[in-house]
Amino acid sequence: MVVSSPITKPTVCETKQIRLTSRLLHIGSAVSQLDPFEYVEAGKFVYLARPDALARSLKSRGFLNDYIYRVQNRESITSLLENAFGDKWWTATDAEGEALFPSHLRSLNWAEKITRLRPMIRDGFGHHYLPGSSIKGAIRTAIAYHLLKHSNQYGVPKEQKTSSIEQQLRKSMGTLKRKARFADDPLFMDELFTNYDLYYQKRLVKSRQGPNTDIMRALQVSDSQPLIEQHVQPENRRPFFRNLSLVSEVVISSRFPDYLAKYRDSIYAEMVLNVRTQFTLSLDHEMLSWFRHKQGMKLPFQSADDILKICQEFAQDQWDFEHDYWAGIKNNLNDRRKALDFSYIQDFYEPVKCPYSLRMGWASGFMGTTINLLMPDKTVAEIRDVCGREAPGFEAPKSRRTVIDGRGDIRFAPGWVNFETL
Question: What pTM value is reported for the model?
Answer without folding.
Answer: 0.90
